Amino acid sequence: MSEPRPQRVRVTGPPRYSTGPRNRIGDVHEQTPLGDVFLRSLLKEQLTLAIRVLVLIGLTLGLLPLVFHLWPDLAEIELLGLPVAWVGLGAVVYPFLLLVGWRYVRSVERNERDFADLVAGSEDRES
Amino acid sequence: MSGDAVPGLIAVLAVTVATLAIGTWGLRFSRTTSDFFVASRSVNPRLNASAICGEYLSAASFLGVAGLLLVGGAQMLWYPVGWTAGYLVLLVLVAAPLRRSGAYTLPDFAEARLGSRVVRSACSLLVVGVGWLYLLPQFQGAGLTLESAIGAPRWVGPLIVGSVVLVNVMSGGMRSITFVQAFQYWLKLTALLVPAMVLLVVWVGDGRPAGSGAGDSWSVPVAGGGAIGLYGTYSLMIALFLGTMGLPHVVVRFYTNPDGRAARRTTLVVLALLGLFYLWPPVFAALGRVYGGDLVAKGNADVLVLELPRLMVDGVGGELLTGLVTAGAFAAFLSTASGLAIAVSGVLTQDVTSRFVGERGPAGTPGSIAPAFRLAAVLAVSVPVLVALFATNVGVAQSVGLAFAVAASTFCPLLMLGIWWRGLTDAGALAGLAAGGIGAGGAAVLNVVGVQGSGWVGALILQPAAWSVPVAFATMVLVSLATASRAPLHARRFLVRLHTPEVLEVGG
């Protein structure tokens, strides 16, 4: 008498593979402790990346005025017949900023993929 | 004047007619308010980046930078560098989350994040303030350009540009057509690049004469005057690096990206396009040192870009190049002023004029808010035009620098803390906006009305960002901590939405 019941469930319900990932993204959305951990880790990683870029800019561009303030003679150095500050801040700085931005985008997208994998679990149908 | 005026006049007319024509034509594509949103969400990163640059590269970039470099030397290179690096800061801190927030304007973002109408109103007030501060130099620059190009009195430029922008904005034309602004970028780049190349060839043909003038400090990338100069340079850098993310017309454009990922890619392309553009103003400045000594003596360095072709090339060639740079300068005024006027009018409509002018026509169409929007547009444009007619000329790039300082002291902390810190409260945001807005905004007003201090007081007023930005951040954080119980309940959910990659989006 107890046997038909499980069979009934199997026949009427369509297979729902997505319950796993839904539960976990649900965790993030519904502020469970687990979701909290997920979000905290993503936030921390993204913020670390951002701060790393800002520190890099601070230590390169950010130090230039101080360096030239302390050693004004540096300004007389010439590159390609032009004062070094003009070459650096007039031209070289733009490819540099673009390169930093490009590498940041690559890292941040990798972070997001990792996060997606973590939350969605390792189910093959996602990939 | 008569002979000199012809190419400039033709260029100004051509750009004006083209802008108005395309604006009217674009009206067909923006029948409903939602049309505008849906159409723009599918804009691809390259086109969108061109449009951002078209709107962003204002008279300050097109005319102001070369003039500043000519007079001030390498220390002024921080202007173009800061305007570009601002996008890198925007990229790493706010680009993708801001797009995912779904907010269309800064007040929208503030209200969605903090759930407070009061903070929303404060943001609206600031958008209008920053917008006006940024519009002012556009109109002043227009006066300079027409004076230089066709010998018109200085009040003609603000009136003409103001009217064209007003017609454009009121017809709703510029609203939908991203590609007009994209076109403006390429026009401005061409108008700077081609003359720069030709003039370089002329310079080489002349036997590469060396420049004379400003002297040793010309190659030093930090302001003179000891500690005060160092403070000024760093303060300027802070304003420009952090202010970009708070410019109302830039934020609007980020919503036109399909998703957060595209927002990042758009920003990357913007970095490339701005870099490509800013290579050329230094060329004009360096050549100006050789050929344009008179301009510095006359205190008229802002028109260097416009005058140099005529000084270096005689006859038809010089006239053609003059026409080209005049067209570029005019495109710069029109596109930036239109973008800003739209951003300011939009906010004024939502928060001010729609309360006084009743809705007409069926809801959800432009007709329903059209009267309020038109009134807002008139306000948005006429106030800075009037100020431009009567205020002292602060200098195009200087005035734009002040707008950046205000944005960096108000919207930058709001966006950064709103996106990355759960603990931000409405009271904290309001206190921080007030502190930064009053600090940097007060300094800006003092500058515009012509108050000048000397020594440290003067430096602190001229470049407020280095003190007003930390004050705003500290106020926002401390007041938020003191009122922690007011932190909105949905803050965590909101942050989840800002930082969750789109691949994971589930329904609602």
Bin the strand percentage of chain B: under 5%
* Stretches with pLDDT under 50, minimum 5 residues of chain B: 34-40, 360-366
Shape assignment of chain B:
globular
Strands of the widest sheet of chain A, in order across it, are 1-2
Query: What number is the mean pLDDT of chain B?
Result: 81
The tally of structural domains of chain B comes to: 1
Round the Cα radius of gyration of chain B to an integer and report it: 22 Å
Brief summary:
The complex is a heterodimer of chains A (127) and B (508). By secondary structure, chain A is mostly helical.
List key phrases describing it.
A: 127 residues; mainly alpha; two-stranded antiparallel ribbon; 5 helices; B: 508 residues; Sodium/glucose cotransporter; transmembrane helix (chain A); transmembrane (chain A); membrane (chain A)
Question: What does this 3D model show about the protein?
Answer:
The complex is a heterodimer of chains A (127) and B (508). Chain A has helices at residues 4-12, 19-29, 33-60, 64-70, 84-120, and strands at 78-79, 82-83. With 127 residues, chain A is mainly alpha-helical. The two termini of chain A are 43 Å apart. Mean pLDDT of chain B is 81; it is low at 34-40 and 360-366. Chain B has a single domain (2-393), classed as Sodium/glucose cotransporter, CATH 1.20.1730. The radius of gyration of chain B is 22 Å and the shape is globular. With 508 residues, chain B is mainly α. Chains A and B meet through α2, α3, α4 and α5 of A and α5, α12, α14 and α24 of B.
